[in-house]
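Cont'd.
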Amino acid sequence: MRAVITVIGKDMVGILAKVSTECSNHNINVLEVTQSILQDLFAMIMMVDFSKSDIPFTEFSDMLGKMGNEMGLSIHVMHEDIFNAMHTI
Amino acid sequence: MLNARDILETITMIQDEHLDVRTITMGISLLDCCHSDVDVMCQRVYDKITRYAKDLVRTGEQIEKELGIPIINKRISVTPAAMILAACENKDAVKLAKTLERAAVTCGVNFLGGFSALVQKGFGPGDKELIEAIPEALSVTDHICSSVNIGSTKAGINMDAVALMGKVVRKSAELTADRDCIGPAKLVVFCNAPEDNPFMAGAFHGAGEPDCVINVGVSGPGVVRAALAKAGDCDLTAVADLIKKTAFKITRMGQLVATEASRRLGVPFGIVDLSLAPTPAIGDSVAHILEEMGLECCGCHGTTAALALLNDAVKKGGVMASSHVGGLSGAFIPVTEDAGMIDAARCGALTLNKLEAMTAVCSVGLDMINIPGDTPAEVISAIIADEAAIGMVNSKTTAVRVIPAIGKQVGEELSFGGLLGSGPVMPLSTYSPAKFIRRGGRIPAPMQSLKN
């Protein structure tokens, strides 16, 4: 399955590095990354492949959420299906 | 790859605009639990519900986590209890209510609906016993919701049942007077009740439904309001279009959750209910959508027209997003559950007369309205009759969920907590319909019923 990681918050050094390190630690392949500044907020969107991950999806999602809290960022990991369902016919 | 703007839109909807799936409701048939001995029947009922719904809450929470969408309630609806009570020699309806409560607690669900009777054309075996037990059943349980269907376009209105329900609503309030009269907040009187409605308090599992089914109710008034706010000054054609697009997105999410829940639980998917269901939270109000359209305050002239537009656009947008649409599907206007409605009722802009007009164009009826504590049963019956007449003639569902605030008068407040909210006691006409209600009998089905 593929998942979308979104990171929203104040820009700082090392956000991409930290998130992608966590992905690599758990054998989650990063497929695509986009970054933008939206209303003074940093927004990063990552598409990742979860199929070979060594950790359950919900555990990874909790872990990144917690990491986000510590860094003052809002990090969400969501199944790709939700976005496909909502935005494609 | 997915468009970054779309992704951020979804995240904003969930984070800031209260987008959620309001409920996953598992419908369970209890028809095979019938037995002449009420104790045997209760045991069968408990066993069947706890067997079928044992994974419901856990699965709901899993889906919530994986898809990243809040799923607020996990609920159960069952066959109208009067139907299975009919088989018992000792029709102890309160015992059945307590059994349902025990099953609801074991499964960990928020509510269990179906302590119900369908009496639009007359009372069958078990119906009267159940209806008379409603006040006690609602006062000794916390999770049980009750509904009674007293009319339909096909059958007309059973005015004997209407007269009885006025007394039942009053008594339910009296028995729970020490708990802000919470009893009648869990009781709905319907005309044209849908058999697959996932929303409480009116959910029950109709006789034509399969053994077990998953129905999902979506929500999202906050998302619609935010979309309108961003659109700025556009005409009403554009407003309707925007609501349709937003409703489509909301419903697609509901459809995804419904299919996923159905797959994981191994239970057929029934319907998605396309409803805008408000909560007392700020930013989750249907009244605020109407105000965003340009009304100074919900309840002013123009409210009915704005609501008609909203209700229709929600359906048009949602219907293509789901493979099966059902339930109530439309905009809800429960007064105490909607921050904007509460404010409008408090300042006097929203009156019962206006609410009655609004029910002709929205999905349900007079919902969660606090009325003075000294309101006679006949007046409550007359409110039910008026509302049922609107539903019967317009071939739509209407309902009444009013709460007599025992010991309180106009301007004082009742507070139920949670999603049921709080609100002021609203004034009623003080002239008496007692003689009309005492007549009893049936209001014949209207010409609209002769469609064959």
